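pinned: reference chain
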Amino acid sequence: MSTDTTAACLNCQQQLSAGSFCPNCGQRRPHRLTVGHVAHEVFHVFTHADNTILGYIPQVLFNPGRVVEDYLAGRRKRYFNPFQFLLLVLGLTTLVAVALHYYEATGLEIQQRLAGRMPAAELARMVQYFHYLGKYYNLWWLLLALPMYSLFTWLVYRSRGVNYAEAFFVHVVIGSAANLYSVLILLGIWLADLKASASTNINSSLQVVVGLLYLIFIGKHAFELSWPGAIWRAFLAVLLSMAGSYAINTLAFRWYVFG
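pinned: its structure tokens
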């Protein structure tokens, strides 16, 4: 198999001139794969890992303020795509929750607690509600939680010049970290064989704590707020988000279970 190095770019069809990259789109000049090239690429993953998943995970977990600051300033090349990463993490969280029957166990525990105090049909729908909540957790988070959290954050921080898209990105980063921690917590809860109600409280508390702490550090480092300003804004944004989540969950639960 041969590769014509004088032909048009395989990505955008621009005629290639001298050099290693296409002058139009930046695509590297095509060449045939060799063992040496593959070995170099594998080595590159581990030695230049900032813009890979392996490099992005510690950045988003331990330095979210810098990630947000760099991304909003346009310094994005060094990072793995944050939006793609969030999708992957949400998929992993959903997979783990479904595999461990986390939400079903919560529904069954509540069903046992309320047995004899509610009609059997409503109890059955309640268990089914929790089943669907776990099965479609990723969609719920993307389509409802993420836009809502972003809205409240924008309302709180807009006086500092933050627009909705920037608030949205803040929660892409926070959501990635929170859901990574959730995976670890869910696995730990499963290994410890805790009751579903206890695990729900632990996981919910984790989400609140992560959201609060990360918003404080992002406000301080990315938005250049004072510590008092970063703290009160983070508390307000998290309280609004908690109230919004509670309202949506309550309405959805009552509509599905009680009709």
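why pinned: Residues 227-258 form the longest helix (32 residues). Residues 93 and 184 are 9 Å apart (CA to CA).
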